Amino acid sequence: MASLEDIGVAAAINILSACAFFLAFSILRIQPINDRVYFPKWYLRGLRSSLLGAGAFANKFVNVDFRSYIKFLNWMPAALEMPEPELIHHAGLDSAVYLRIYLLGIKIFVPIAFLAFAVVMPVNWTSGCLQGSKLTYSNIDKLSISNVPLKSDRFWTHLVMAYAFTFWTCYILKREYHIVASMRVHFVASEYRHPDQFTVLVRNVPPDPDEPISELVEHFFLVNHPDHYLTHQVVYNANKLSSLVSQKKSKQNLLDYHNLKYSRNQTKRPSKKTGFVGLWGSKVDAIDFYTSEVARLSEEIALEKDKITKDSNYIMPAAFVSFRTRWGAAVCAQTQQCRNPSIWLTEWAPEPRDVYWDNMAVPYVSLSIRRLIIAVAFFFLTFFFMIPIAFVQSLANIEGIEKAVPFLEPIIEVKVIKSLIQGFLPGIALKIFLIFLPSILMLMSKFEGFISLSTLERRSATRYYIFQFINVFLGSIITGTAFQQLDEFTHQSANDIPKIIGVSIPMKATFFITYIMVDGWAGCAAEILRLKPLIFYHLKNFFLVKTKRDRIEAMDPGTFGFNSGEPQIQLYFLLGLVYAVGTPILLPFIVVFFGLAYVVYRHQIINVYNQEYESAAAFWPDVHGRIVVALVVSQLLLMGLLSTKEAAHLTPFLIALPVLTIWFHRYCKARHEPAFKKYPLQEAMMKDTLEKARESNLNLKEFLQSAYIHPFFKGCDDSDDDEMMEEWVQEPVVVQTKRQSRRNTPLASKQSCSLSSSGD
Amino acid sequence: MASLEDIGVAAAINILSACAFFLAFSILRIQPINDRVYFPKWYLRGLRSSLLGAGAFANKFVNVDFRSYIKFLNWMPAALEMPEPELIHHAGLDSAVYLRIYLLGIKIFVPIAFLAFAVVMPVNWTSGCLQGSKLTYSNIDKLSISNVPLKSDRFWTHLVMAYAFTFWTCYILKREYHIVASMRVHFVASEYRHPDQFTVLVRNVPPDPDEPISELVEHFFLVNHPDHYLTHQVVYNANKLSSLVSQKKSKQNLLDYHNLKYSRNQTKRPSKKTGFVGLWGSKVDAIDFYTSEVARLSEEIALEKDKITKDSNYIMPAAFVSFRTRWGAAVCAQTQQCRNPSIWLTEWAPEPRDVYWDNMAVPYVSLSIRRLIIAVAFFFLTFFFMIPIAFVQSLANIEGIEKAVPFLEPIIEVKVIKSLIQGFLPGIALKIFLIFLPSILMLMSKFEGFISLSTLERRSATRYYIFQFINVFLGSIITGTAFQQLDEFTHQSANDIPKIIGVSIPMKATFFITYIMVDGWAGCAAEILRLKPLIFYHLKNFFLVKTKRDRIEAMDPGTFGFNSGEPQIQLYFLLGLVYAVGTPILLPFIVVFFGLAYVVYRHQIINVYNQEYESAAAFWPDVHGRIVVALVVSQLLLMGLLSTKEAAHLTPFLIALPVLTIWFHRYCKARHEPAFKKYPLQEAMMKDTLEKARESNLNLKEFLQSAYIHPFFKGCDDSDDDEMMEEWVQEPVVVQTKRQSRRNTPLASKQSCSLSSSGD
Question: Where is the CSC1/OSCA1-like N-terminal transmembrane domain (chains A, B) (predicted)?
Fold first, then answer.
């Protein structure tokens, strides 16, 4: 077991590596050539234009202003400067609330850490149960609950602390839920007119032999919402079209690549082979080949578009129905339309950018079967994912590689390389699986048939959290695969499970401290460096970029990735709450993580990420719920731990804790969750009345007519859907300040603060 | 362990006692003097008028027509004769659907019994594992799964049967859910105008310093539902008034009793003592005393009524809001009104008869605390109810009685009586507790703050089911109190619990067979005899009845009692499904129970019970859900049983069963439950349009004005609320056939069938 010194060394290494990342970042970000990698958000918002083309040649690529190198950490206060209302205006409510999760971690754990260090730690340290025993122990263990002897009355301290921590966490959670709910309500209320405020998605329109779907929808809503129905848009099945468009895009990229190559070296026309991945087949001229391919695909796309608009088989049994008033839409979205609850299903239309078009046509019965399949698949994924990985690992050994690529044998047989490969190979299959896991979970959610990106991400996040809870948290505490645990747990009594885990918890403290430093501290620092986008941007810039738009596409700002990011944070909440009472030495590491991550992600959200959709913080109930789960888990484990310490007389007092916590959760759910699921009629009516008074001659129909058309139909060109999307979100017209970069602090100026207040 | 012969003897005894009950019933019911005990429903519906006063004196009290004694079982076919649509018209949809639960039992278990007898029984019988062993065994055991040797391949039969039974049960459940849902939809659609179709209950109206509640409500709904709001009624706090009224009623009863006594024996004025329960205090003339008391209370009631209507403190923050159209009401009931989800809570108003007035003023925060308290209280009630009972039992011993009432000592000391008391006393506390349990659970539900009788009953039924499941089902299988079980289970592994229970199940078959015969068969027969109402009716009739109305009040028809009746049936479903695969010998007993109970309750519903409210079968999702629970329990227990038989290779096949069953439940829930919770807008619009076309000059406001006034304000007289209630339910005017009783078959004549068809 590691001593305090070991941890100090590990901390030093990790702090140094984090500092190295930060240093690299500070040097790279002030190079003009990387400007689009580290500040894409400003380009996308149109607040920063290209630096290339102005100034001296050297200035274009390398920063020669040496003063800027000195203040290499000054992005940190800069990231914290932007006030929250401006941040909401700049990056959306989702991003602003996502940052509040880190803030929540700081708010919860800083007082808990102080209290634990002031009370729990001295009690543990002075107990001296381990001193006399013959067990090997370290200083860390002397600071943990393991040091308190059996049946000691000192456990009352831990009990009281458990209550104090629970009440504090619940208080902060409740306050935060309240704040986020009112932020959401205020955001929705102050938003300008949006198509999704007036629009309801209706699915599973029953087939009618006499009427086409479009007329059927119109008649149904004219009859059942006579005073409110305005217009509707049917949904086309454009899945084939979208695959054609993406094919064309990749061919176009290759064409551009070859063109560029030819233009640089005009001596040789580039050629390619027509067979699989260009490895065999007859040789043809690459530029001619791709030009003809692109032309063919353009033709096919035009044909397909024509077919879609004319052939009624392409119309899906779904439609976006728009209403005259927000009130009418709110009513339709929140009520059942038809006696049969599996047809004419209505729900709020997602934001146009948020729609996941491919799932529009999933029929009702299939939905419930799909959910069963995914539930079973996820169970197997969670508990048996080691089986295929072990199989791959058994294949990927030295002998296998030598057989497959015999000419590498002499290199592999070098002793150093051999041992390196042998140490590295078994892990690689697992690592690859873990990297792809969020994408696998996303695919699962897509198969389940959700129709908006935000729900897809939230669903994937839930699954990822469960996976991490079982395989990272439990898997690290009780070593062994998840399936072995499952098998063991079903053979244990319900009482024993918390005992087994509870007892192991203090012993794993050093492991988790290291984990927090590597995954949390160094991971954060790596996130800000953006190594992958940096490399890809320069590759693309070199091989593909011709026009300004190409450069914009090459930027790849990414998003904050709720589906993988949030479960990662939740793991820290879980660790913090579980260790708070027993081994509080872990808490400072978690506090540092939350602080660091808050600064890093605030910087990234301001300067880099470009959120694809705006769900107005619809994910908060999930975040809240998972922290409550962590709280209950920590209480159960404390109960298990104390019962092995023969302090069973405390158990009745501990039982009240989870009961109260669960009740607190139900109370919060009833009190605050409706703000995230429902749209109150009073609000709708208020906004309708205001709007009528302000703009009495508004042509709403025109405004809504084309809001929910499939992106590929928006314009004649099929690649400008992002821009089209942007147009829909009609923001109040403001004079945008096309600021030239203030190189070190790319923050909005104080003037642009007025933007947020005019967002009303 | 009982042999087949023992069970035969027990069956004979129970059949004989059931026959004796039936015989007594057939003799008692044809006596004219008991007519109001056995046919109150017909009196209440006005289809049967008093028999007294017509014909010869003897005929008035005793039936002298000896032919009618011969056909003593002919009520049975008579009870089955009434077709279902007429039954719905006669007794309401709730009653008709309640009967379908028994029918469902027959539908599920008759084919299962046949299949089990044809396949499982021979397989068990011919296995002969017990023959060679030294264990004591009976013929019953030879018919059960215990007879199959370890690791036998014959367990495949049981596996296949488990699948067959599950699929059959699910198929029938799905079909029945569909039928009941469409019955409900049809019933609601064909109902004539009801106030609850237009009315929404709004609760937690926030206090406003500037406006009284009535105006506040009006303004709020005029603003937020401008085209639909019609009128509203505030809710008064009449709890004190209702206690005064009930006091007056009891005094009035005593006055009537003394008056009657004096009129029979004019020699002596009755007197009473004014102290506690009339045991001490000064002696006064009873008639004068009660006359003055009644007068005083009448005055107080008048005062209180006056106060309620004038003092604004008596107005609760709740109101019944009525709308112009069903569409408007449906919209308001199913949406959230205000940004804060804890104020302006709207929900469908219950039927006027169904309103539970006392809970109208429970504030929102208190609601969630009350639920926590009741949840904890119910947990203790379920697991620790034996503690107070054991305490009472320890007090209630012979010595204690002798000390309390010393003059009884010589009687008690007689040996026979002493042993009788000693055998009887310990059980009596438990028996009393079990009799009062449904009332205790009802009180709990009332404390939780539900606002309609139907929800109160459904909630109590759920709790009663859980209590029975733990204390009767599990308690009989694993002897010991529920708390001991809980303690044991938390120390067992999750795998072992189904094993322990599964193994005990076949051993308890004879116990449950006896239980079914005593509780089910004889219980049914006792139900039809109505011994308690019979005695009470005659007592009241003798002491209190003066007018025709008194006689109507003395009838006490009762209801079918969903809160205690349905959990009882569910226990039989549970037993049937659990024993179907292992010990099918139990099935015929259950089938007989369902058949007998169906006939008995059909008779009672037609002739006796008077349902207090009509919830349009809102309880069906609960019924369905509990049968699914029973199915899953039976599958888990089979898994446990088979794993002790070392047939673990079958377990993977069995695991799929509960997964599929739970998925089936979720599918049914999504597909059919909305019909019980929501009111589709299409329906509402259809009925509105029809009504507008038919009765264009209807004054809806007048119709709704007084629908939701507290019963005590309905008329000047406070005892005629039942009649007032009846008035509200405006049924189509039909010429009621005041039929004189056809003594043996008090069924509606064929002509009255037309009633049901005109109910549209």
Answer: 7-176
Could you give the C-alpha distances from A519 to A461, A513, A515, in angstroms and in order?
18, 10, 6
List Cβ neighbours of A572 (8 Å cut-off, separation of 6 or more): A105, A516, A520, A590, A593, A594
pLDDT for position A227: 84
The answer to whether residue A97 scores a pLDDT higher than 90 is: yes
Evaluate the CA torsion angle B212, B218, B221, B224 in order and state its sign: negative
Residue type, A461: A
Query: Which residue from B368, B489, B685 is facing A666, i.e. has the nearest CB?
Result: B368
Give the chain A residue nearest B328 (alpha carbons).
Answer: A331
- The reply to whether residue B227 touches residue A227, judged by beta carbons under 8 angstroms, is yes
Euclidean distance between CA atoms B436 and B440, whole angstroms: 6
Residue B61 amino acid letter: F
**In this structure, what are the phi and psi dihedrals at residue B318, rounded to the nearest 5 degrees?**
-145, 160
Which helix (H) or strand (E) covers residue B315, if one does? strand B315-323
pLDDT at B172 over 90: yes
Query: Is B336 within 8 Å of A681 when comparing Cβ atoms?
Result: yes
Please name which of B222, B246, B232 lies closest in space to residue B195, comparing C-alpha atoms.
B232
Is A467 within 8 Å of A382 (Cβ atoms)? yes
Q: Which of A336, A372, A685 sits opposite B224 (nearest CB)?
A: A685
- Confidence grade of residue A387 (pLDDT, cut at 50, 70, 90): confident
- pLDDT tens digits, residue range A250-264? 888 878 877 777 777
Q: What is the pLDDT of residues B645-686, one digit of tens each?
A: 877 677 778 888 999 999 999 989 888 888 888 888 888 888
CA distance A429 to A426: 6
Chain A residue numbers touching B223 (CB-CB < 8 A): 682, 685
Least confident of A171-175, A550-554, B231-235, B596-600: A550-554
Greater pLDDT, A625 or A387: A625
- The answer, yes or no, to whether residue A508 has pLDDT greater than 90, is no
- For B369, B447, B456, the CA distances from B359, given in Å and listed in that order, are 15, 8, 11
Binary contact (B336, A331; C-beta < 8 A):
no
Q: Which residues does chain A have within 8 Å of residue B491's beta carbon, measured at their own beta carbons?
A: 493-496
pLDDT, position A100: 93
**What is the DSSP secondary-structure string of A425-484?**
HHHHHHHHHHHHHHHHHHHHHHHHT--BHHHHHHHHHHHHHHHHIIIIIIHHHS-S-HHH
Report the alpha-carbon distance of residue B472 to residue B485 in Å, rounded.
12
- What are the structure tokens assigned to B176, written together? 């029945």
Query: What is the predicted pLDDT for the residue at A66?
Result: 64
Q: Do A357 and A240 contact (CB within 8 A), yes or no? A: no
CA separation for the pair A730, A514 (Å, rounded): 48
B206 shares contact with chain A (CB less than 8 Å): no
- How confident is the model over B280-309, as a mean pLDDT? 82
pLDDT tens digits along A605-619: 888 888 888 888 899
Is B339 in the A-facing interface, judged by CB distances under 8 Å? yes
Band the pLDDT of A479: cuts 50, 70, 90: low
Q: Is the dihedral of CA B520, B526, B529, B535 positive or negative?
A: negative
Quick check: B663 contacting A, CB < 8 Å?
yes
More confident residue, B290 or B544: B290
Select the residue from B335, B345, B659 to test the A interface by mutation, using most A Cβ atoms within 10 A: B335
Tell me which residue has tokens 């639909």.
B228
* DSSP category for residue A355: B
Evaluated on CA atoms A67, A71, A76, A81, the torsion sign reads negative
Closest CA to B505 of B379, B641, B615: B641
CA torsion angle B612 B613 B618 B619 (round to 10): -10
